[in-house]
Each structure stands twice: as C-alpha cells, then as structure tokens.
Specification:
Helix content: 40-55%
Number of strands: 6
Strand content: 15-25%
Number of helices: 4
Largest sheet: 3 strands, antiparallel
Radius of gyration: 21 Å
Shape: elongated
Distance between the termini: 51 Å
C-alpha cells in the first residue's frame, strides 16, 4: 500500500503547475558581421501585401560562417561561442526560414534588437 501512495504522490507532484520545466536561457552568441541590408522581398509586390519571416542576427551569422565562408560547424560554433549542437539547431531553423520565404513568396527581415546585444570591440556584436 505504501508503494501505491508514493506512486500517486509522484504523479500529483509532476502534474502541479509549479513543477513545470523551464527552458534554458539563451547563451551569448558572438556576431562578427553587420548586415548592410535588412529586408529581402519578391520583386513587384509591395511590402504591405507580403507576409514576412524574421531571421535573427545569430541565424544570419551561422549561415554566413558555414554556407558562405565554408567553415565546418564546429569551427563556426567556436567563433560564435556556442556548442556544435546549438549551431546545428540555429542553421536548421535559419535554412527553414529562408526556404519558406523563397517557396512561399514571403519577405525576409533580418532583425536587430538593440536591447539584446552589446558591442564587444569595433566589429563584434554579442547577443545577450
């Protein structure tokens, strides 16, 4: 009978709202490049008529390092100050957003949030 009680107590504790799993905070991401353009859109369609996808600076930096400069993911992860698994997730999401915009004819906006970055040297930006 005591095993049953412990089992029921464990289920109750698991279902309590205060026992929810909290996501980890976003680690600091180093971005060594600032985009000169922040919007891409299909030609001939006004912006007001388009839906948009938003790329973060960390996603643009990951695409730049791996796809444009040809770095391996582990080297790009080291430059950005994140794990190889994290850069893999960043790349997967960035590539998905780019594919959606191309296939669906959406606009692509590169988002800079001044409250989430701090300057670290003349050309380096670190996301908080």
């Amino acid at each position: 009978m005591s095993v049953f009680f412990v089992f029921i107590l464990g289920i109750c504790l698991y279902l309590l709202p205060n026992n929810e799993h909290m996501p980890r905070t976003k680690s600091c991401r180093k971005v060594n490049w600032q985009p000169g353009v922040v919007f891409f859109k299909p030609s001939g369609i006004p912006m007001r008529e388009l839906q948009e996808e938003v790329l973060g600076w960390d996603e643009v930096e990951a695409i730049r390092l791996v796809d444009m400069e040809g770095l391996y993911q582990d080297a790009a992860a080291e430059k950005m100050g994140v794990s190889r698994q994290t850069i893999g997730r960043i790349l997967k999401e960035a590539r998905r957003k780019i594919a959606v915009t191309m296939v669906s004819g959406k606009a692509l906006r590169i988002e800079f949030k001044p409250d989430e970055v701090e300057l670290n040297g003349p050309d380096t930006i670190k996301e908080k």
